[in-house]
Predict the 3D structure of the following.
Amino acid sequence: MTDITSFLLDDHRHCDDLFAAVEQAVTALDWPRAGTAFANLHSAMEQHFVAEEAILFPAFEAKTGMTRGPTEVMRVEHDQMRELLSAALQSLQAKDADDYAGNAETLLIMMQQHNMKEEHVLYPMCDDHLAEQSSALLHSMGQTLSQAVGYRA
């Protein structure tokens, strides 16, 4: 059986792959492909955030009583990444490769730092505290992730 850490780590890697696809399209100045790739990235990241914020974090908080800890930090970082995604979209719409690159670099650094905290701290804590609920949580999160545009089957 897959644990929460493995399941969400796989989704992080999926988002990383989508991020790389946008970068490749922007580098080639292939704006239609960049737009499609970005729509897939944006959708996948938003669904990932929703899966955590609406399903995983509330379950963790209910089980542990921790509402001012790691989940609060992750929500703040999700909001910061949403802002960076919005700025990156504006750059793409303006076909401004340099501006996109700046926004993308900041987003990438934030994603890497965020993912490390989740993968090495929060997700293992979730696996420890939510073991008896993990099947139901994984099913619900899988349903949410599958709503992303261009979802990988």
Observations:
- The chain has one domain: 4-145.
- The chain has a mean pLDDT of 94.
- The longest helix spans residues 31-64.
- The helical segments are 4-27, 31-64, 70-93, 97-129, 134-145.
